[in-house]
Amino acid sequence: MYSLLIDSSIIVIFIIFCISLFLLSKAADYLVDNAVKLSQIWGLPEIIIGATIVSLGTTLPELSASISSALKGNDSFALGNAVGSIITNTSLILGIGALFGKIPVGEKSSQKFNLLVTTVFLLIFTTLPYKVQNEGSYIPQWVGFIYLMLVMVYIVYLIIQEKNRVSISKKNKSGIQVNKNTRSVFMIIFSIFISALVIAVSASSLVNSAEILARRIGISDVIIASTLVAFGTSVPELSTCISAAKRNHGGLVIGNIMGANILNILLVVGASAALIPGGIAVTEEFYRIHFTTLAIVLSVFGFFAYNSKINEISKREGMILILIYILYLFINFL
Questions:
Q1: How far apart are CA 323 and CA 42, in angstroms?
Q2: Which partner from 74, 176, 312, 322 sits 20 to 30 angstroms from 8, CA to CA?
Q3: What SS3 string covers 131-189?
Q4: Running DSSP on this structure, what letter comes out for residue 10?
Q5: Where exactly are the transmembrane stretches of this chain (predicted)?
Q6: Residue 300: what pLDDT?
Q7: Whole-angstrom Cα distance, residue 248 to residue 234?
């Protein structure tokens, strides 16, 4: 695929980049939907399904793209994608959501926000011992394995949270009627296999086209990963956020986005670092732009969340979050 793309025009490469993003997001959604159906057929509790398949499925596009780039030796792409997705989700997605409806900040979303801040601190501080003055640093492979172990801890936390929530309405086992015949099971498994195949191919194509696009434009592939790829993988969250905010279900959205942000660090960065013997290289660019913007976005969002008299992100605050994202784009492409 790389050899075919390298001789193509920049327009063709950009079209392939966009198609790859679209297929990656759609295939990830399709895989999660079918995995949930299969889990229900096999009798898995809804608590387990929600805390594992659905939660992990939200980061599937970022995870597949980052793993694909890590296997190709492009470790900075993986980190840029993860950090860029958190910035995009917290500033742009929630900011736009606030313009269309209510984004309430309750106790549960505050708990997840605190977990996210802790995870971000963990990410940045694990790189500091290896930082050399004005040069970059790296995330060692062993840290990647620790992040992956923390994913399991986070899943247990989600299961406990879900258990407390569902215990009130135990009588409603499952509102979905599931067809349990053999043909149906076979078709679901086949659909999961095809979805996984599309994810693998589109993720590889996405990384290849992004790398070549970055070279042609004359910018680093970290910028492509943290802006275009991060935005593309966040588009499903954007449509969900707008729809939920209009229907006054913004609380669900903010919880899901904070959860996805946490997994972007623990799972996406963790898996990428664990796959590379030398770990993930953290260039000086991350400290100057990406980590700094991430800290600003979380600080501003935290200030809005904890100082709100109406316990929600207002339209004015949503506009400020969007402006921070626009400034982030401007600095990247400056």
A1: 47
A2: 74
A3: CCCCCCEEECHHHHHHHHHHHHHHHHHHHHHHHHHHHHHCCCCCCCCCCCCHHHHHHHH
A4: H
A5: 6-24, 36-57, 77-101, 113-130, 142-160, 181-203, 223-245, 257-280, 286-306, 318-333
A6: 94
A7: 21
CB neighbour class for 295 (10 Å; exposed up to 12, middle 13-18, buried from 19): middle
- pLDDT digit string (tens) for 79-132? 999 999 999 999 999 999 889 887 888 777 788 889 999 999 999 999 888 777
Write down the residue that tokens 């640093």 correspond to.
Answer: 137
Does residue 174 surpass a pLDDT of 60? Answer: no
Name 138's bridge partners: 281
Which residues are paired to 137 by β-bridges?
A: 282
- Residues in a beta bridge with 280: 139
Would you state the pLDDT for residue 25?
A: 79
Total count of domains within the chain: 1
CATH of the domain at 182: 1.20.1420.30
Quote the tokens at residue 209. 């086209």
Residue-range definition of the domain harbouring residue 213: 2-333
Q: Which of 151, 124, 99 is nearest to 294 (CA)?
A: 124
Under the phi-then-psi rule, with left for phi > 0, alpha for psi from -120 to 50, and beta for the rest, what region is 131? beta
Q: For the chain, how are helix, strand and coil distributed in percent, rounded to 5?
A: 80, 5, 15
Q: How confident is the model at residue 176 (pLDDT cuts 50, 70, 90)?
A: very low
Nearest-Å Rg of the Cα atoms of the chain is 20
Q: Is 94 exposed, middle or buried (0-12, 13-18, 19+ CB in 10 A)?
A: buried
Strands 312-313, 280-282: pairing kind:
unpaired
Taking the C-alpha atoms of residue 80 and residue 4, their distance in angstroms, rounded to an integer, is: 25
Q: What is the pLDDT of residue 33?
A: 80
